[in-house]
Structures are given as structure tokens and as C-alpha cells.
Design brief:
Layout (H helix, E strand, L loop, with lengths): L3 E4 L6 E4 L9 H14 L1 E4 L6 H9 L5 E2 L13 E4 L34 E10 L7 E5 H7 L2 H7 L3 E4 L1 H7 L7 H6 L3 E4 L1 E3 L5 E3 L5 E4 L4 H15 L5 E4 L6 E5 L3 E5 L10 E8 L5 E2 L8
Parallel strand pairs: 2-3, 4-17
Antiparallel strand pairs: 1-2, 3-14, 5-16, 6-14, 6-16, 7-13, 7-15, 8-9, 8-12, 10-11
Length: 292
Amino acid sequence: MDVQVKPLHPLFAAEIIGADLAAPTTPELIRTIEDAMAQYAVCVIRDASANDDDHIRFSRAFGPLELPPASSRRGIASQLYDVTNLDPAGEIIPVDPGRDPGLGFENFHTDSSFNTLPTKWSLLLGHVVPPEGADTEFVDTRIVYEALDRAMQEKIANLVAIHDFWGGRERLGMTGITPAMRAMYPPVPQPLVRQSASGRTALFIGGHTVGIVGWPEKEALALLDELFAFATQPRFIYAHPWRTHDLVMWDNRCTLHRATAFDRNRYKRDCRRTTNNEHGEERTSFAHLGLT
């Protein structure tokens, strides 16, 4: 079957029709998907294989994996991030009223922007999806950058932002962060503006961005909040309603995403994610600490 690319939104995002994750990944399919991702930034494959090995093999065709720091508590493949509300027996884990499980996930962000090595793509496969809620919303920050006025583009052209996992959580109201927790994810600098794979310029912002190098905190946060509010206007958002066995891929270098809320005590959600590094060998997100 020929592979076809069908736009899903007027601005970005597309469905890739005819790609089979269970079959060998051919050079032609790799080129088609790379081209589609460069153009659309978010791509969806419906009825993808539910086999973890197929998911991992397919993902590796597009670059080395960023590996989770430890095997999943549910025993899924150690190359997969476990995005779930289920325990090892497959039952719903009751929500702790004192801790919001949606904190961070429901705020627009870029995966692993707080790591020293930014990531290329994330590929999330829905094994069990809630019948309502739990959509994923995306923003293409190339389109956002192009919509900024010239004065703002010039203002931010050479700025370096500070990405801090725990700092971002603190801005959302999280408390109780220990020095040991901070040591696992120390702040890192990233350019506020960067080039995407298509050659178009993109903003590199999101919920993990908490400062600007050389700027006072108040002024930095004011600018970042202004850019964040501009970027997350409804006109820029594609909302993906999940179906079982959807594989959704997005380019972390030029997109933001967030999960929408769902009833975590009522509905099961079992999604599994691979993430590609931009280059180098496969390594964990804690490689800077010498952990595997």
C-alpha cells in the first residue's frame, strides 16, 4: 500500500496513511515520515501495532533513543516511558488528593527541554485511552514565531532561556522539592529561538522555561509569560482526540504539547512513549549523573 499524508489542521499536523509498524521500516518510509514531520511537525498513524518491540524498532529508525532512567514499575520494555494511571495488575491507581497527577502534563511543554541534550521526536502510542477527556493539544512554534511582530523577533533573537524541570513545577504550585530531586534535573540553558528541521525558525519555550540568562527574574518571567500566552492562543492549537492504537509523533524542537484533563479515578489510560535524541548514542535522561 502506498503511504499517503493527509493534513489534519489548517496550520500543521497530518495523518500518515499506509505505514505499518509491524513491517520492516524501509528507507522510502523513513524518508516519507521525515519529510512529513519536517513539514507538519505532528503526525498520526492510526491502528499502529500494539507490540512494544515494534514501537521501539520503528522509533529507532529515526535516531538514538533517550532511555528512561529505570525500568517501568509495570514491567513494560525499559526503552519506553510509561504514561499511565494503572498499577502492575492493570487497575487504576487512586488519585492522591494531596498531589495533582496532572501537574506539568496539563501545562504546555516540550519533552526533555530540561536535559543538556535536547530531543528530536516523541512517539506516543495509546494502548488504552479514556472515552472522554485526555486529548493531547499541540502548538507548532514555527507558526507562532512567524506570527510575532518584527520588534519581538529582534528582541528575542539572541536570548538564552533557562529550562528547569523543578522550577517549572514550582511555578505551578508544587512544593516539597528536595535538594536530591533538584540534583537529578539541574537547570540548563537553551536558545530561546532555534532552527527547525525544515529550516524555519521556531520558539523553544514551554512550561519548563523559568528564566533568561543575564536577565533579572521579574523581567525574564514577564517576557516568557508573554510569549507563552501568545503561543497558546486557540488559533494555534491542534487538539488530537485519541483512538485506541493511535501512534502520535511530534517534533520537540518546534512544538509544545499538553494533555487535557480526564477522570483519573474512573477511566484507564495506558500510553507508552519513545523519545529520540537529536544525535549521539542512546543514553538515559540522567546520563549527566552517570546513571543508567
